[in-house]
Amino acid sequence: MKHGRSWLCIAMMFLMAGCHSPAGDSRQPGTSPSIPAGEDLSFTIGLSNKTLNAPYFMAQLKVIEEEVKKRGMEFIYIDAQDDILRQVANVEDLLARDIDLLILNPLDPHALVMATKSASRAGVPVIIIDSSIDPEADFVTTIQSNNLRNGELVGEWLVTQMRGRRIRAALLSGAQGNPVGKERRQGVFRGIIEEQLRTLGDTRFDLTVQGWGNWTYEGGLTAMEDILVAHPDINVLISEQDAMALGAMQAIREAGKQDEILIVAAADGQKEAFEMIMKGEYGATGLNDPRLIGEMAVNIAVRILTGETDFPAVIYTPAACIHQGNVDEYYNPDAIF
Predict the structure, then answer these.
(1) CATH topology of domain 147-286
(2) Does residue 77 have a pLDDT over 70?
(3) Using CA of residue 214, residue 218, residue 220, residue 221, what is the dihedral sign?
(4) Do domains 7-145+289-318 and 147-286 have the same CATH topology?
(5) pLDDT band, very low/low/confident/very high, at 27 (cuts 50, 70, 90)
């Protein structure tokens, strides 16, 4: 299987030449010399992750740890286990352990604001990854996939597959109040509506139900079982990420509806989802690569710690809709996610 668009090429393009930021975002970060892997920088990087209860976050943790240690730095991480109060305490713990920089994936965009201010008072810069945080927080930059654009591309692709049929969709969301989930679903809806207006001249889209899967396979399975009982006539499932969609797929199979419901996800590009796409059992997903985000986070961390200050508020990884026609370009059987 070919790997197509080499992740090495993408990483080099984004890590060394400055990352693409869509129009309307803050200016590009200035370029700086690459910091060689293996050079002892004598810094300690702390990671506070909202959860490790998903393959995506485990893969991201592994990449960040590898990249930090390649540069001779120390690494400390703490898992908040989906508990806001625990994550606030985790940040204080990391600061007490004299970290030099904090990488933070916040569970809640508001509850972690004061934690970032504590870091700022301690002279510890903060990088936000994956999730978004309230603008009142103290942080250098946010590194994440382009959730809105990924969703748009998936929504546009979905319309082409429905061939004019009315969409009766169920939405599978991660967690209430989560800004990433909100961006992902709004992107899909916008893509659907704009593509239908462009090609059909009207909109044929019903959202019949929203279920909550808490970003897990098991949550997606349970939520989908309930959805199928209450709404047996749906013909599309829109999930905010792959893990929940894969769980929902099990429920759909058990109900004998695998030929009736088209499954799409706004993100993540999980290896198992790619394999289902290859088989024609899963429609499409958006690109959210934990390796690229992890590599970018450590690279930006090193640039901050060695004196660079010129960064945009948000740095996006490339957006893409992966479907059966292009999945070979993205699938890597050796990927950790």
Answers:
(1) Rossmann fold (3.40.50)
(2) yes
(3) negative
(4) yes
(5) very low
* CATH of range 7-145+289-318; options 3.40.50.300, 1.10.10.10, 3.40.50.2300, 1.10.1740.10: 3.40.50.2300
Residue 21 has pLDDT above 70, yes or no: no
pLDDT over 70 for what percent of the chain? 88
Q: Strand, coil or helix: what is 236?
A: strand
Give the span between the Cα atoms of 227 and 234, in whole angstroms.
9
Interval 266-287: pLDDT, tens? 998 999 999 999 999 999 999 9
**In a 3-state reduction of DSSP, which class is residue 195?**
helix
DSSP 161: H
Token pair, residue 65, equals 């740890």
Question: Both tokens of residue 145?
Answer: 């996939």
Query: How far apart are the C-alpha atoms of 175 and 179, rounded to whole Å?
Result: 9
Distance (Å, whole) CA 321 – CA 259: 22
pTM, two decimals, is 0.79
User: Residue 327: helix, strand or coil by DSSP?
Assistant: helix
Question: How does DSSP classify residue 163?
Answer: T
Q: How far apart are CA 183 and CA 169, in angstroms?
A: 18
Q: Which residues have CB under 8 Å from 9's CB, separation 6+?
A: none
Q: Which tokens in the block code for residue 209? A: 């139900």
| pLDDT (mean) for 76-96 | 96
Q: Transcribe 105-144 into DSSP letters.
A: E-SSTTTTHHHHHHHHHTT--EEEESS---TTS--SEEEE
Please tell me the distance from the alpha carbon of residue 22 to that of residue 18, in angstroms, as a whole number. Answer: 13
Q: Residue written as tokens 């901050």? A: 304
Question: Under a CB-based contact definition with an 8 Å cutoff, are residues 244 and 220 in contact?
Answer: yes
Alpha helices in the chain (DSSP H): 7-16, 55-70, 84-96, 113-121, 147-162, 179-199, 217-230, 242-254, 271-279, 290-305
Please report the sign of the dihedral spanned by the C-alpha atoms of residue 275, residue 278, residue 283, residue 284.
positive
